[in-house]
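Continuing the series of single-chain predictions for the mutant panel. This is the parent chain; the variants come on the following pages.
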Amino acid sequence: MAIDSIEAKIGSLAPDFKLRATNGQEISLSDFRSKSNVIVFFIRETTCPQCRTHVAQLGRMYDQFREAGAEIVVILGEDVEKSREYADGIHLPFPILSDPDRAVYHLYELEKYFLLFQRTASLVVDKSGIVRYLKRTTVPNVWLQESRELYGFMLSLEEGLPVR
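Parent structure:
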């Protein structure tokens, strides 16, 4: 039996979490086990334009990601109301999960860098709950091409090609 690790790294069991979503549901990572691969993206801040661009792109590509066997989970370190305003502002087809205390950010080792810059991450968790892709950063420019990279990764994961 696998034990949830505190440290998320490629090849490890992804730490589980349960958060309230903008649609009112409580969603946990384990809800997707045996059903779907999951892309998890942690928004840096509501004021981060690169994060907003990436989340909007994930929204536009949502049907493609679902066809490639993936669900999308976006986490924001704000209360449900602010998270709902953010989601409504970019017309997302999926809910945003609210993490006002940033407890899940901490679980995934996304503490603020030098107490100033919020670390952010993008990861893919497979149907077995294993982290297959992980990118952490304090520099949000990397998110401008991330949705296309994630889509290519999801296609390779579904086709059983070697993953990195």
